[in-house]
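Attaching the record inline, Q. Sequence:
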Amino acid sequence: MSSILFSPLKLRGLELANRIAIAPMCQYSANDGVITDWHLMHYGQFTVSGTGALFVEATSVSPEGRISPGDVGIWSDDTAQALGRLVKFRQSYGNVPLGVQLAHAGRKASTGVPWGEHRVLGPDTGGWSVVGPSAISFSNVFPMPEELDQSGLDRIKSCFVEATHRAEQIGVEIIEIHAAHGYLLQQFLSPLSNQRSDDYGGSLENRMRYPLEIFAAVREVWPDEKPLGIRISAVDWVEGGWTLDESVTFAKALEAAGCDFIDVSSAGATPDAVIDGGPGYQVPFAAAIKAAVTDMKVMAVGLITSGRQAETILRSGQADMVALGRGFLYDPHWTWRAAEELGAQAPYPPQYARCHPSLQGLPIPPGAPPAES
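Structure, as predicted:
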């Protein structure tokens, strides 16, 4: 029986070689938003991995939207041109479409890198002012955000649009909008962080309004032939927070707005969440959304570790794609191993073809197995 995981998937004008994606994984290693040699090494290995799609980490649309000073940015010509180095490498050597995740951290901005001395950065440690839907801090150690007024909302929307233009100019092939993990757009969705009394707060329709406005603004300027998706947190994992039923309603609205795929994660809105983790623990959220939408593709994430597990998720109809983060950090060649496990084929660069299971230890013969581009 042929593998569904290793069957192609069409997203608008882009055909993915298989249904595996490398999820955005923050590296906290940029300089003023500019990628470094670390990123060239890190993402370079993934562009030749034979995976269906690769997403660059949360890429901030403005300096104050960064999670940390080490975040990648796309708010200026310098930051965009640096990202363009990755695109050129992929075009020259890679076999994996390259996407970026456009992000704004909102009230969770201005934190230190995870291995640094300071968890939260203040004015005396290199931090900056933060914004959010309401003047509610993430925790008692995080700064109080300034509530965004209409001019602030318009300014951030313009930042997303300008970032989209820059992504197109450097040749990015896919965009994913970050509306998960307690960052700005998810802050508007969750009643834990959004207690506004205007058209952007209160009812579910109002709380969805700004994320949907951002999505529509990006879709309007992103080329029609290029796919656009979004990452959401399906639940907040806390009483009184964002729920799965609300995620289903949001997903239907996104599909109506032209969303091509939805990446279903969870949590991040509050440090008080109690998460019931385990293998594939977020897959049921993806399954609930997949059952509710018609054409939009659904991506499952969360402790997916083996090819057989991923195959089962797709074969059982719970999702259309899977995305791995930590699995690829541990094993950058996860796709090749999964293909061997399932008796399938994945693209290899010609420089690595001699490690293909059918050719191990042998010279590269003429015509064996071709690297797909």
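Residues 208 and 250 are 7 Å apart (CA to CA). The mean pLDDT is 95.

More tomorrow.
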